[in-house]
Amino acid sequence: MDPILLGVPWDGTTLGRKGARLAPGAIREELRQRLHPYDAASGHMVRWGDAGDATVGATHDEMLDGVSNAVAEQWKAGERPVIGLLGGDHAVAYAGIRAVRPFFPELMVLSLDSHLDLRPRDQGPSNGNWALRMIEDFRRPLVEIGRGRFSNDEGLFETARKSGVHVVPASELRRRGVSRAVEPVEAVTESGRDVYLSIDIDVVHQAAAPGATAPSVDGIAVDDLLDLLEWASRRFRVRAFDICEVNPPVDPTSVTARLAGYAALSLLSRYAPSSVDVAPARSGERI
């Protein structure tokens, strides 16, 4: 089954600069014009379908329903191709998990982000509290990789601890490399588990992702992002993913949209046309 791309042109819950609603079109333009579907590493053409954009409406609830309806439409025949959501602000992740969870109830969430996104929800839904809302509403385990040094309020770390969130800071990836930095994650997760993978483009250093809604001074390198995607797709069964917070109005040369398109191709290449190989399970306590 070829994977499916679905645009979610939504930034109605952005705390910072608006503009991420324009990202689906910008990323598709990079996929059409500047990135080639031939994968020189594997020697095959990357195939995917494009389901267009979800109907997001004007409110958060309408956006949620639009994404759920669009995912259900793709999976209604009983087949479950991998779906990649092109956001949109990071509240799109909550919508994606909400849509996917009924089909994969044991879903684990893996987020690549410089921010914890665990802000209080008393100000309503936002791209800064989607992770907290997901934990409280869906009770799914969360692993966050790429947390920045000066990117989060002090209280959010206590929220992460109380909520059982496993956090790997960006500094660990720089210091130890991806394969060693993810060892603590492997120690507490089951290989082959169903996963929803969420990518906030600001996990990458601002030199490579200047057009993120909130660029990161201490973000990870592009190579580390690609290694993380390879690791995640080998270790887990990624059922759906999103790429969020590309902000075309502040990305005049489109390098951030191109990076998002490259990341999408890297994931799509794992699911078409060959099957996914998953690493054998390790023993020990799991989440």
- SSE succession: EHEEEHEHEHEHEHHHEHEH
Q: How much helicity do the residues have?
A: 25-40%
Strand content: 15-25%
Kindly report how far apart the N and C termini lie. 29 Å
Second rung of CATH, namely the architecture: 3-Layer(aba) Sandwich
CATH class: Alpha Beta
Descriptive notes:
The protein is α/β, with parallel strands linked by helices and 287 residues long. The chain has one domain (4-268): Arginase, Chain A (3-Layer(aba) Sandwich). Helices cover 35% and strands 17% of the residues. The protein has an eight-stranded parallel beta sheet with strand order 4-1-5-10-9-6-7-8, sandwiched between helices. It has a two-stranded antiparallel ribbon with strand order 2-3. Helix 9 (222-235) links the parallel strand 9 (194-200) and strand 10. The longest helix is centred in the N-terminal third of the chain and has 16 residues, at 60-75. The protein is globular. The model is unreliable at 274-283 (pLDDT under 50).
Summarize the structure.
The protein is an alpha/beta fold and 287 residues long. The chain has helices at 23-33, 60-75, 91-100, 130-138, 154-163, 170-176, 178-181, 183-188, 222-235, 255-268; strands spanning 4-8, 38-39, 44-45, 49-53, 83-87, 108-112, 142-147, 166-169, 194-200, 237-244.
